[in-house]
Design a protein that fits this description.
alpha/beta; Rossmann fold; two-stranded antiparallel ribbon; 41% helix
Length: 301
């Protein structure tokens, strides 16, 4: 894990704030479980294309945030004092739903209703439902950071201890509204705000550096007044250590990830940005997830 400009104003309370709820092994297994659920949901609707690549790349981010970092309100934290999660890259909602089930904000019954129909609670994009921890409806990229900044400012004015976490994509950072919101957050020194960029290097039309090279995200966030950390986005330990840090200014955690992570034929393959999953792909994915679980357990021995 590398610090970009983070010593200034950084208050390192990662270890002392509280004891971790889960071990590294447990969090790694939770991430694999999220990936399995992503693929199972897509398999349930074989004729519908899903944003599999970006959902798979952020599995560890979701597992660590909702499993070990956030005070969700389902863990005994008073509801108004809970932390907030804004999934700005709403097309990755397939990774959000199982993570919400894991932490107790979404019921198995609601999850089992599926993605479509009058009684569906979940969907291809998030639909705002604060009672279930869904703070923002998705669909249009570039909206989440502005909303998250507003939540952080509101918490400050109300004297709440709530922290706000905003998960974005690196392709999403092409949107000008992202940088307007970053300017607002930096100017107001919103120290309770943490942005996590799922930097998998690919977007709908190809590599982010080729579609629109917006320069190094680390330097840009730093220029807007953020403390910045760069981590391996598939290391639950690096993610947890970075996300438990505290600063007087807003934080940006740039998580280097692999699009389609966990499925060999989807990793780094832009085709799987939005794609249908056939029976063969499903079977191969399930086999690879089982092997990944065995590897995690073997490493833990």
């Amino acid at each position: 894990m590398a610090s970009v400009n983070g010593e200034e104003g950084m208050v390192r309370e990662a270890r002392s704030r509280r004891v971790a709820r889960h071990s590294d092994t447990e969090l790694a297994l939770r991430a694999i479980s999220i990936r399995r659920s992503v693929v199972e949901l897509a398999h349930r609707y074989p004729d519908v294309p899903f944003h599999l690549g970006g959902s798979l790349s952020c599995a560890e981010i979701m597992a660590v945030l909702l499993g070990d970092v956030m005070r969700t309100g389902a863990d005994g934290t008073p509801w108004e004092a809970r932390d907030r999660l804004v999934l700005s890259k709403g097309h990755a909602s397939l990774a959000l739903w199982p993570a919400l089930v894991q932490c107790g904000l979404l019921s198995e019954e609601d999850y089992g209703r599926g993605l479509f129909g009058d009684d569906a609670v979940i969907g291809k994009q998030p639909k705002r439902d604060v009672s279930r921890g869904i703070e923002l409806s998705g669909g249009s990229l570039g909206m989440g950071l502005g909303y998250a900044s507003g939540l952080a400012l509101a918490a400050r004015r109300r004297g709440l201890p709530s922290r706000v976490y905003c998960v974005m994509g690196d392709g999403e950072c092409d949107e000008g509204s992202v940088w307007e919101a970053a300017s607002f957050a930096g100017h107001n020194r919103l120290g309770s705000l943490t942005v996590i960029v799922d930097a998998n290097g690919l977007q709908l039309d190809g590599p982010t550096a080729q579609v629109l090279d917006s320069g190094p995200l680390t330097s840009k966030f730093a220029a807007f007044g953020f403390d910045v950390q760069v981590v391996d986005g598939h290391s639950v330990r690096e993610l947890r250590d970075a996300l438990l840090m505290r600063a007087e200014r807003p934080m940006a955690v740039v998580a280097r990830t692999v699009k389609g992570k966990g499925i060999s034929f989807a990793e780094g393959n832009v085709t799987w940005h939005d794609h249908c999953l056939d029976e063969d792909g499903y079977s191969r994915a399930m086999t690879e997830f089982a092997a990944a679980e065995r590897e995690v357990l073997r490493d833990a021995e």
